[in-house]
């Protein structure tokens, strides 16, 4: 039987396909015959937040959730430790120790610097690799620390000291600021500055630790001297609620601030008053008078609405114009294609007749 070129090509293609199939089968068989080798993996270790932080000590915490594996099995223990220091370069580490099974671990750090930021991370190592937990930070307490609490009392209407006091025009109030040393060392050069909100006016009566003082604490910084640990000083002075006409209409929240600072630390505390206003504007919860804000709509209608609208219409017009132009191009192209096909069919018909 004579084999034409087409049949010969088909037979050759079938032979090639069979050869490829046999080669693939041999490759799969060789893979199945190979012994399985597992990839060794590192442990999985987590870094948790520090706890029990003081001015020179802290506890750092971690957990190991997987000891990893070696070529033919799994590890059931790892060496763990922490790296720590004032930068992400660390520079110090805790002693290495063995931990078995899935477990958490803690190390106590001592001899730290006060008022300092420390970085740390947990580290775990098996016989194959080393793993690192994420970086965490903590800040040691300052040896010199102060705390300030500011409250007020409505003398005219009566009531206890509170962080927020309701007043009306002309009410006399008492403002009390307690400054305490809460650190491990004596706070030196303690200073206090009080800022009253607009609408509350200083009205004398300043006493410091029960001793009268003729200064205006809202106009100058008052020196409180030194404060030993766990010692405090109480500062009291009087003020008066201003005219309601000077405040925007509605219920205003007027916020004042007490600032205490030393050469090593600083803290603030706020106190507030609620007062109805009858003046221009609308009341806001702020320690200052509201300011006019350009909303972009009421203040300037042209810029906020008309110009963006015109701009949008312009974009739409240009876009649609482009589409119309494209439609014309497409129509012309379709006509050219149709003419070409008709011409081609005509040539075929002429050729058939001449043949």
Describe this structure in words.
- This is DUF11 domain-containing protein.
- This protein is α+β, with helices and mostly antiparallel strands.
- It has helices at residues 5-33, 301-354, and strands at 44-51, 58-66, 69-70, 73-74, 77-85, 92-93, 97-100, 103-109, 117-125, 130-132, 136-139, 146-154, 164-166, 172-181, 187-195, 200-202, 207-208, 211-212, 222-227, 232-241, 248-261, 266-277, 279-282.
- Among the domains are: 44-139, Immunoglobulins (Immunoglobulin-like), CATH 2.60.40.10; 146-282, Sandwich (Immunoglobulin-like), CATH 2.60.40.1530.
- Strands 5, 6, 7, 9, 10 and 11 form a six-stranded antiparallel β-sheet that branches. Strands 12, 14, 16, 17, 18 and 20 form a six-stranded antiparallel β-sheet that branches. Strands 13, 15, 19, 21, 22 and 23 form a six-stranded mixed β-sheet that branches.
- The radius of gyration is 41 Å and the shape is flat.
CATH topology of the domain at 146-282: Immunoglobulin-like
CATH H-tier superfamily of the domain at 146-282? ntegrin, alpha v. Chain A, domain 4
Average of the residue pLDDT scores: 82
**Residue share in helix:** 10-25%
Low-confidence stretches: 286-304
Classify the beta-strand content into a percent band.
35-45%
| CATH C-level of the domain at 146-282 | Mainly Beta
The N- and C-terminal alpha carbons lie at a distance of: 36 Å
Count all strands and give the number. Answer: 23
Instruction: Please tally the helical runs, counting DSSP H or I stretches of 4 or more residues.
Output: 2
- How would you sum up the major sheet? 6 strands, antiparallel
Class based on secondary structure composition and strand pairing? alpha+beta
CATH architecture of the domain at 146-282: Sandwich
What form results from the Cα inertia axes? flat
* Rounded Rg: 41 Å
The string of secondary-structure elements, in order, is HEEEEEEEEEEEEEEEEEEEEEEEH
């Amino acid at each position: 039987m004579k084999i034409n070129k087409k049949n010969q090509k088909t037979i050759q293609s079938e032979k090639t396909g069979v050869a490829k199939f046999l080669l693939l089968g041999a490759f799969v068989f060789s893979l199945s015959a190979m012994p399985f080798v597992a990839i060794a993996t590192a442990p999985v270790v987590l870094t948790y937040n520090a706890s029990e932080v003081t001015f020179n000590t802290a506890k750092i915490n971690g957990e190991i959730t997987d000891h990893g594996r070696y070529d033919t099995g799994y590890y059931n223990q790892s060496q763990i430790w922490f790296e720590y220091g004032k930068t992400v370069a660390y520079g110090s580490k805790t002693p290495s120790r063995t931990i078995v099974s899935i477990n958490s671990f803690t190390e106590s750090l001592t001899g730290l610097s006060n008022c300092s930021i420390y970085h740390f991370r947990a580290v775990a190592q098996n016989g194959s690799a080393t793993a690192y937990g994420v970086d965490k930070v903590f800040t040691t307490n300052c040896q010199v620390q102060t705390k300030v609490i500011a409250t007020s009392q409505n003398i005219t209407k009566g009531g206890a000291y509170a962080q927020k006091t309701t007043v009306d025009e002309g009410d006399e109030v008492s403002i009390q600021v307690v400054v305490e040393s809460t650190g491990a060392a004596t706070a030196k050069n303690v200073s206090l500055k009080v800022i009253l909100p607009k609408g509350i006016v200083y009205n004398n009566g300043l006493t410091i630790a029960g001793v009268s003082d003729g200064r205006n604490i809202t106009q100058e910084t008052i020196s409180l001297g030194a404060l030993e640990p766990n010692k405090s000083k109480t500062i009291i002075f009087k003020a008066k609620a201003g005219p309601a006409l000077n405040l925007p209409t509605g219920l205003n929240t007027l916020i004042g601030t007490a600032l205490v600072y030393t050469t090593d630390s600083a803290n603030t505390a706020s106190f507030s008053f609620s007062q109805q206003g009858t003046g221009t504007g609308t009341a806001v919860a702020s320690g200052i008078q509201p300011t006019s804000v350009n909303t972009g709509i009421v203040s300037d209608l042209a810029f906020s609405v008309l110009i963006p609208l015109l701009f949008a219409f312009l974009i739409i017009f240009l876009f649609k114009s482009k589409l119309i132009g494209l439609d014309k191009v497409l129509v012309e192209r379709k006509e050219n294609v149709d003419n070409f096909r008709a011409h081609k069919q005509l040539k075929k018909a002429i050729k058939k007749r001449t043949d």
